Amino acid sequence: MPFAGGASALLAALLFVGQCCGRSVTSDARATLEADAPRAPGSREAYATLLYGDDFMLGVRVLGQSMRETNTDRDLVVLVTGNILPTSIETLMSDGWIVKRVDTVFNPAKGPHPGGFPQRFWAVYTKLSIFNLVEYDKVVYLDADTVMTKNSDVLFSCPGFCATMRHSERLNSGVMVVTPSKMLYDDMMSKIEEYPSYTGGDQGFLNAYFSDYMNARVFDPNDTSQAADAKMMRLPTSFNADVGLYVMNSNRWMIPKESIYIIHFTLATFKPWNWWTPWIIKETKVWLAFREHLPKDSLGYSHGMTPFQHFAQFWMVIIPLVAAAILVRRYLWGSGIGSAFRPFPSGPGSPKAGGSGVVARAMVPRQFTGLSIIVGFLSILLPLAVTFSIVPKHVYPLWGWILAYEWTLLMHYCLFGLYLNWCYRRGKASASPSSQVYKVSGLPNRPWRATLKGATAGTAALVMCPWLADILLLRSFVVKVILTIFVGNAATAILTHFYASLAVRWFACGKCEGYTKSNSLLP
């Protein structure tokens, strides 16, 4: 039909403009998209999750992939709120999700935190919208930081409200089974301003709302008949395996691994899509395996990659190497760094015979050592902060570590190198005929060899610090933390020595060169 063709063309144009502008789709276009979303014929049960920012987009996609690989035939529904890119909507639909736009339920700030809630929880109360999915008889909700390792359709047999009990006799809202009800949902909405939340989010509210939940019976997936008359039931740990407890138990599960249905990555800083997470959580490999199976997104990228991640894994790896080569060739080679790779000449009057070259003793300002140590560690901490801000956190772990080391070390040595150059020039400017130095004949020998030794030792210390426990095959989380702290302290001591000694050496070298030049001993 001409009208249908024109409508399709108009919709395509709207999506194209939305992509180019980087904004969310318009409400009309979004409504059309969602109306066209696939739904299993006669389906009255669904898995659901929440997406209120593109930061969790990759998590939602991997969760969907894990559920599809368990061969479930239930609907996959994603509740969307906030500013989600139109390309993300398209990708979710192509992945098989039913995209349902819902109004944002803003956090009422009833928690103990400054401002009432952690910033990342600004829209987490929107999760309560699952109770309003009245088009379904039963909904199993999963957070975007979970993955399903076995078919979990048996959860739809759990009656009423079901969740997993955690520490301190509190339920965890990362995996829930709910029976949608408009009356129940409206009652919840009327009480969110009234009930406190110990987490500052929906989980604290649900614990207050279902205050008698701790007395609920445990759901037995092998005997669903015993649950027929229950209003609430507790899910076994196997349906919400907390990776935090896994880490604290030395990267071992407290229940048989083969009995686990759903893994929940509960640690806020160590979500499975962050490249640094596998360093502390070995079970991230399960999540990464599902990521590998992701189909292409609406832009044609595989494995959940983005254009910036592709840029990072190629150009951001090459740029530091090229920059380092240019800096060495243009600025350092002409300053004599090549002498560090040549053996010292022997004989009277040679730099080797002269102990530390042209300088046996030089006076430096009293506060010089402390200043050098402070500058040295700032030249590490600042690059670390910059590195974590420029390296995409969703890149694969191997590339994340490569980028982190390359950019941190490049910026560190550039910054501290500039400081050593300042020390050298400061020493040269302070030289006078009365300077207390002993000279030898010939040109001064600049401390390049000591500088390279310091750089090598510092690099080795920084590289080894996080990995020694893995090299020694130590699995215990506590042992790993203790060993990392120990190696970190050793690295700090090594770096402290080199920061102080190299600054003094370069200051003294400049002072000696200035003295020699002022006395016309240089050609």
TrEMBL record:
Enumerate the transmembrane spans. Answer: 312-332, 371-392, 398-420, 481-508
Among its keywords, does the record have Lipid metabolism? no
- Any signal peptide, and if so, which residues? 1-22
Q: Which domain of life is it from?
A: Eukaryota
Keyword flag Transmembrane: yes
Arranged from A to Z, the UniProt key words for this protein are:
Membrane, Signal, Transmembrane, Transmembrane helix
What protein name applies here? Hexosyltransferase
Source species: Ostreobium quekettii
